[in-house]
Amino acid sequence: MKKIFLFALLGILAAGAKAQGTTQYNKALADSLGADEYGMKMYVLVILKTGENKTTDKTTIDSLFKGHMANIGRLAANGKLVVAGPIGKNDKNYRGIFIFNAKTVEEAKGLLATDPAVKSKLLDAELYPWYGSAALPVYLETHKKIEKTSH
After folding, report:
1. Bridge-based pairing state of the strands 40-50 and 81-86
2. Prediction pTM value
3. Neighbours of 43 (CB within 10 A)
4. Which end of the chain is more exposed for a tag (fewer CB within 10 A), N or C?
């Protein structure tokens, strides 16, 4: 009797989960975000690392990173940069990541060319096609609602 009850309960839960998955699908939203049938799409992942420019001039470094942060804000506001953030200390000289809402690595290279820290070679970049949730661009609106202080 316990086995029958357990199988019946599992069947009900599975049917509910399947029904819930289909009722939540929003075709208009999926289409507006460029989602495929799995709710995913291609992006370009960028790993920023220490570049060949080894300047120690604090004024220059501060100016370049101020421009870097302003560029991040501009690209995010334009919907081209959907994820950005630093990477903790590591032995690979990785400094941070970007995920660009770009269809090709070439398009992402053009976006990177607008970054003062990259142009000056203070930062260098590795670029990779990356397949992730098409919903990434919409998390930024939620982030604005939870950040107490902005950069």
Report:
1. unpaired
2. 0.80
3. 24
4. N
Dihedral, CA of residue 69, residue 112, residue 60 and residue 65, to nearest 10: 20
Asked if residues 115 and 68 have their Cβ atoms less than 8 Å apart, the reply is yes
In sign, the C-alpha dihedral spanning 141, 33, 75, 100 is positive
Residue 137 and residue 79: Cα distance in Å, rounded?
7
Q: Which helix (H) or strand (E) holds 92?
A: none
Reduce the DSSP state of residue 127 to 3 states and report it. strand
Q: In the prediction, which pLDDT does 30 show? A: 94
| Token couple for 74 | 């501009």
Considering just the CA atoms, what is the radius of gyration of the chain in Å? 21
Q: In angstroms, rounded to a whole number, what is the distance separating the alpha carbons of residues 40 and 16?
A: 24
Quote the Cα angle for 106-61-87, to 5°.
60
pLDDT tens-digit profile of 115-126? 999 999 999 999
Structure tokens at 83: 């994820």
Residues of the chain with pLDDT under 70: 1-23, 151
96 Cβ contact partners less than 8 Å away, ≥ 6 residues apart: 47, 48, 84, 85, 86, 87
